[in-house]
Every structure is written in C-alpha cells, then in structure tokens.
Write a structure and sequence with these properties.
Elements: H1 4-7, E1 15-23, E2 27-34, E3 40-47, H2 48-53, H3 57-68, E4 78-83, E5 87-92, H4 100-106, H5 112-131, E6 134-135, E7 144-146, E8 152-154, E9 161-162, H6 179-182, H7 191-205, H8 215-223, H9 237-246, H10 257-261, H11 264-269
Antiparallel strand pairs: 1-2, 2-3, 3-5, 4-5, 6-9, 7-8
The structure holds ligand Q7Q.
C-alpha cells in the first residue's frame, strides 16, 4: 500500500534544505523540511557519476525498492526519491539523535541493559525483514541511527537482498561478515543473526569480536570463530552464552531470532518498549 508521498513526483524545490547531517560514501545527508506539510525529513543526496563509477546503480535501485516497502518502528522509513541531471535524492525519515556509532564511541561500551534493548529491537526488525524474505547482510554500528525517543533505526539497506537472488559480492569491513559470506558460499537469513551477535559483542566490549590489524587475520579469526571474552566487570554470564549461541559457524545452528527474544539475558535486560531510557 503506497501512500500519497510515494506517488507524488518530488523535486528539490519542494524542500527547504537545512544543516548537513553527515557524509556517506556516495554523498551527503541533509536535514530538510517539506515546504507544504512542514514535515521534517533527511535528504540523502547521491552523485550519479559516483554511482556509475562504482557500478552500484542496480544496488541503489534494489535498496530503494526494498526500503520503500518496509514499515517497522526500527527501520528508517524511505518516503520516496527523485533525481535531476547529476544527483539522486532519497527522502528519508529523520532520526533526531543521529548515529549510533558516535554514541558507542562516546561511552566506549554500553551497559547490558542498553545493549540488550538495542539487540532486542534489532532482532524484531530482522524478524520482520526475514518475514518479507529480505536479509540485511550489513548490520553494523555505522548503519544504525537513533530516533528522537531513543529508539534504534536501521538505515542504509545497501547490501540487503531478497533471498531468492543471493549475491556473493564483498564490501567494506569484514568484521561483521559471517564465515559463509567470508568464504563466499551460499548464505541465508541466518547471516543477520551472526552480524547481530557481532554487534552485541561490540556494544558490550567496544570492539568487534574478530578485530585484527590485517584483513587476513580478521578473515582467519572469523573462519575459526576465534571468540575471546576480555574480562569486563558487570557482564553477566547469561550474555556470554547468548553471544556464543549466535556466533556459531554452522548457520543452521545459530540461535534463531525469535528464541533470542525469549533468552534470559534479553528478557532480564532489554526494556520491553525497545527504548533505552538511560
Ligand atoms: C544509499 O543510501 C541509503 C540510505 O543511507 C542512509 C540514510 C540515512 C542516513 C545515512 C545513510 O547512509 C549512511 C550515510 O550516508 N552516512 C554514514 C553519512 C550520514 C550519516 N547520517 C546521519 C543522520 C543523522 N540523522 C539522520 N536521520 C536520517 N538519516 C540519517 C541521519 N542518515
């Protein structure tokens, strides 16, 4: 069901452009307001020539197609898009509290309550996506935003695919990739469970579990599931068990997302509203 916003042909002069919200690989994101409705949005501007050079136009088309049909409180809405001679513009929901990774950098690592609250809301968003045969494949702090009430929003579905056409292309950091993607063998929705485990680890320890100086070392640590838990005070053992059940090499043996939501560590620590109130 597409809304009026999806049908309308938008153009740049429908918007008052505000401050830049940050720079991504292919362009900038701006704070913007739609003039008629006064609705606040984020406008992501991508340069066509850069998209062409990197041959990602098809990936962007798929991203727009996928994200515009997803409706979930923890998935950043894509209201529509338009383009002109040189640029493509994505009209996105505005996340008032910005990028999660900056928050993680500021406080080094999150409390168990905060980590579990975020992991639970991500699990619910991924269950929703998997129910629509969409796997994200790129769950990492840089792709997570925080809404005005502190709720988590997954943005940047650049690497998501419909499960029938599983592409095995590689990208960016290896840290979050599960063994089957690093070995570029067949993969399924369980890749997102692995990445969620990596993310949970990074929320709690401040670094991803298989981080290493060289790509080749990260690669080997992932393949061998070389998982170490540095001594960190106030981490309940329940968490370590949860993590160990998500970071399993055999994708069919990973803790399913709906089981994760019933896991004692999540139940005891995650705020049921999905919002971390501090
Ligand atoms: C192909 O692209 C697909 C869509 O990708 C994005 C959609 C929205 C985004 C960011 C997206 O990709 C990552 C990216 O461009 N950066 C890391 C730089 C800007 C960081 N945003 C900061 C930000 C603050 N409040 C926000 N409210 C909504 N969206 C935001 C932001 N950013």
């Amino acid at each position: 069901e597409s809304t009026a916003a999806e049908k309308k042909r938008w153009s740049l002069n429908d918007f008052d452009i505000g401050k830049p919200l940050g720079r991504g690989k292919f362009g900038h994101v701006y704070f913007a307001r739609e003039k008629r409705s006064k609705h606040i949005v984020a406008l992501k501007v991508l340069f066509k020539n850069q998209l062409k050079q990197s041959q990602v136009e098809h990936q962007l088309r798929r991203e727009v197609e996928i994200q515009s049909h997803l409706r979930h409180p923890n998935i950043l809405r894509l209201y529509g898009y338009f383009y002109d001679q040189k640029r493509v513009y994505l009209i996105l929901e505005y996340a008032a509290k910005g990028e999660l990774y900056k928050e993680l950098q500021n406080c080094k690592y999150f409390s168990e309550r905060r980590a579990a609250t975020y992991v639970a809301s991500l699990a619910r968003a991924l269950i929703y996506c998997h129910g629509k045969h969409v796997i994200h494949r790129d769950i990492k702090p840089e792709n997570l935003l925080i809404g005005s009430k502190g709720e988590l929003k997954i943005a940047d579905f650049g690497w998501s695919v419909h499960t029938f056409n599983r592409r095995r292309t590689m990208c960016g950091t290896l840290d979050y990739l599960p063994p089957e993607m690093v070995e570029s063998v067949e993969h399924d929705a369980n890749v997102d469970i692995w990445s969620l485990g990596v993310l949970c680890y990074e929320f709690l320890y401040g670094v991803p579990p298989f981080e290493a100086k060289e790509h080749s070392d990260t690669y080997r640590r992932i393949i061998q599931v070389d998982l170490k838990f540095p001594p960190r005070p106030i981490i309940s053992s329940g968490n370590l068990i949860t993590l160990a059940q998500m970071l399993v090499k055999d994708s069919s043996k990973r803790l399913p997302l709906h089981k994760l939501l019933e896991h004692p560590w999540i139940v005891q620590n995650a705020d049921p509203s999905g919002v971390y109130r501090g």
